[in-house]
Design brief:
This protein is an alpha+beta fold. It is built from 16 helices and 20 strands. It is 30% helix and 22% strand. The longest helix is centred in the last third of the chain and has 18 residues.
Length: 504
């Protein structure tokens, strides 16, 4: 009965949010609801967000990608070899065509890399992720050579961030116009890009042609709107749901699919003179004061685990020896007393609400736990755009801010940890003691050395308690009853192998 009342109560809201969606009966099209579409439309160089990937991966492909278990595999590349410490050769898949019929060649990959070296390309997110690359050249139609500034043991992983565009079309239109009329090698081509919605049609020339003819990806920022879309059949897949949504999803004939986590939820501390968080004893005390098991077992219904470090278990370089800070309010009070603030202090934290499962309730629990040891945490809700300014420009107003230790798109921790270091242009934490180890890890010539050094970096950050590590972010997708064969890989949906049940 509760489920029926819940559905009825939100029906008018759903009609408003999803009113423009073509009915399932009118068009047997796969409909996917996501929290956000890329602001750059179809220019795949301007973002490396996993949200953008949900929209770009149907149309564009990368040289490498990851299976759900974290294994690196080829997508457009079939193999790669480190010829010298700073030189790699990549072999490309043959018989691959762009959706306009143009064959894929090594020159096309070099073209994308050369664009990233231009003044316009250097400001893109992809260029920052591929900053290790010094240049590339064609060996033959299906082989290219890539040079790095320094040895880079993880170069093949970096290529998971580079989507290959059709070069002639790119040059003819330029980035802005290409973004409205993109061409790639993926299983779908974009039919139209409208506000809040992208329409796709099958790319019959793709080497992994899809099983369905059309598809739509819709921007539905609120979890409630995605949930109602699943409940009423207006959408087939809802990305990024919470454990509290399971009952409604199952009542509508669907199910919840759990993926392996790739992110850690945290509150990063601003470590600078004059703030209580400048004292490592205070930062450790805040970690001891919070009951992470209550977060994962109660608020997240057992779909998560307490964070042990700024990385999840499947990431390359994860340190298995690190444990979560245990819940120990008495130790927290002792550390605060040692720091000379046994009477507590005020802690202002800027957070984004609604981007992760149960995050509002989680922040409230954190505030309650901290209050028990005398720390008054003020939760300041801000939009994503303001958070981006905080991170890029250092314009924090509080003593901490919510942040994801992310794995996407390379699934190794240093990509995020470099933001928490002296390497970042506006650092909120800068300790020169760890920089030789971090720099050595980033220029390691082999994977074993890179992994060992990364584990040392993670141990240092754990010991310094640079962030209030909370939990691994659960990845739950709601799947409607029409969908057959939903088996996503890490960060990417298997659009090309999904089929739809026929309506009775």
């Amino acid at each position: 009965m509760k489920t029926l009342v819940y559905l009825s109560g939100f029906l008018s809201y759903l009609t408003f949010v999803l009113g423009s969606i073509t009915s399932i009966e009118a068009a047997p099209s796969l409909k996917v609801g996501v929290a956000a579409l890329p602001v750059s439309d179809g220019d795949p160089h301007r973002s490396v967000s996993v949200f953008s990937t949900y929209s770009w991966s149907p149309t564009f492909e990368t040289l490498t990608t990851f299976l759900e278990d974290g294994q690196l595999v080829g997508e457009l590349a079939t193999s790669w070899e480190q010829i010298e410490p700073r030189v790699w050769h990549f072999s490309l898949r043959e018989n691959v065509k762009f959706s306009n019929g143009r064959p894929l060649r090594a020159h096309d990959v070099v073209h994308s890399l050369e664009y990233l070296q231009t003044s316009h390309g250097q400001i893109t997110s992809t260029a920052r992720d591929l900053s290790a690359i010094a240049g590339a050249s064609v060996i033959d139609d299906y082989t290219l050579s890539v040079r790095t500034h320094k040895p880079s043991a993880i170069l093949p992983r970096l290529f998971a961030a580079l989507y290959i565009v059709e070069p002639d079309h790119w040059d003819a239109l330029g980035p802005d116009k290409f973004a409205r009329d993109p061409i790639g090698t993926g299983p779908f081509k974009i039919k139209s890009w409208e506000r809040g919605k992208v329409y796709y049609e099958a790319n019959k020339l793709s080497w992994r042609a899809p099983q369905i003819e059309t598809m739509e990806v819709l921007q539905l920022p609120e979890t409630t709107s995605r949930l109602q879309g699943i409940a009423t059949g207006a959408i087939d897949i809802a990305i990024g749901m919470g454990p509290d949504n399971i009952g409604v999803v199952e009542a509508s004939g669907g199910y919840m699919h759990q993926r392996n986590p790739i992110d850690v939820m945290s509150i990063s501390f601003v470590v600078e003179e004059g703030r209580p968080t400048n004292d490592v004893r205070v930062r450790r005390a805040l970690n001891y004061a919070v009951n992470k098991n209550a977060i994962t077992e109660i608020l997240l219904s057992g779909y998560s685990k307490p964070a042990t470090q700024g990385a999840v278990r499947s990431l390359f370089g994860y340190n298995p020896d690190l444990m979560p800070y245990p819940y120990d309010p008495a130790k927290a009070r002792t550390l605060l007393k040692e720091a000379g603030i046994e009477n507590g202090f005020k802690l202002d934290v800027e957070v984004i609400i609604g981007s992760n499962a149960s995050d509002s309730a989680i922040y409230q629990l954190v505030a309650s736990n901290l209050a028990d040891v005398g720390v008054t945490m003020r939760i300041i809700s801000i939009p994503t755009t303001q958070m981006v300014r905080i991170i890029l420009q250092g314009k924090w107003k509080g003593d901490g801010f919510s942040q994801i230790f992310g794995g996407w798109p390379t699934f190794e921790p240093l990509r995020t940890l470099r933001l928490h270091s002296c390497l970042w242009q506006t650092p909120w934490f800068c300790d020169q003691r760890i920089m030789p180890t971090m720099n050595a890890a980033m220029s390691a010539s082999n994977l074993q050395q890179r992994a060992e050094l990364t584990q040392k970096v993670l141990a240092f950050y754990h010991d310094q308690a640079t962030a209030l590590l909370l939990h691994e972010v659960p990845l739950l997708d709601a799947i409607g009853p029409r969908v057959i064969g939903y088996k996503p890989n890490k960060g990417k949906i298997n659009y090309e192998t999904i089929t739809l049940r026929e309506e009775n």
